[in-house]
UniProtKB/TrEMBL annotation:
InterPro entries in the cross-refs: CAAX_protease, Rce1/LyrA-like_dom
Transmembrane segments: 49-72, 92-116, 136-155, 167-187, 193-212, 219-241
Keywords in alphabetical order: Hydrolase, Membrane, Metalloprotease, Protease, Transmembrane, Transmembrane helix
Alphabetical list of Pfam families matching this protein: Rce1-like
GO BP field: CAAX-box protein maturation; proteolysis
Record organism: Haloferax litoreum
GO MF term list: endopeptidase activity; metallopeptidase activity
Coiled-coil intervals: none
Positions of the CAAX prenyl protease 2/Lysostaphin resistance protein A-like domain: 136-231
UniProt protein name: CPBP family intramembrane metalloprotease
Amino acid sequence: MATTTRLFDSARSLVAALVLGGGGLLAGTILVVVTQVAAVSVGFELTPLSLIVISLILLQGIAFGGVALGYVTFRGLGRDYFGVSIPSLRDLAAVVLGYVTALGAAFVGALLVSTIGVEAGSNQVTEIAAQDPEVLLLLVPASFLLIGPGEELLFRGVVQNRIRESFGPVPGIALASAIFAAIHFVALTGGAGARLVTISILFFPSLVFGTAYELTDNLVVPALIHGAYNATLFTIAYIAFKFAEMNPDAMPSGLLFF
């Protein structure tokens, strides 16, 4: 009986994590689509830049944040469930180490894909930035203000914590990282196989974010690592597109943005 109960609790925890992660993405997508339709209906033409801004606010900001806060409210949990505090010196050291490790994982992934010669999916932002590199300058601060905090709040603060309750810390980190990487499928271009290659690469920096959160119990730490990681890749892409006139197809497959 006890074993059956544990299995049920574990299954419920995993399903809840999948629903929360997928629900955040779905809610954000609906908000973006509704906004696009409303804009078109009143004769307002959305540029790629304005669409990116709207997506950042509605997806990472409102949808991810709303799902996370709605979840803790539904369960009657306080906001301390997330673990948010001013970083200590130890936390800041973890940020630096995590940033270097995550960036290293991305470059190693890019190198492996290039060496093996397999096709990987590319991020849609890369294609937009190839036409208008200035978009990337907006995404650098957005990495710290919206992307890092919003995504870490939902996928580490809620999804990872929920899985951890039933499976423990290591499975919590691994499963939450897999869910987080998998939701990027819709943001990638290319065939299913190419997208799966990219998702596999994204899994490893995600492990770094999850591990940093587990070790520090402070959501600010993975949010800063994530933000710095993204900002660095956006900066590299800006330099490549603006000054080196790099073709988007030549962008290393591992250098993808969360």
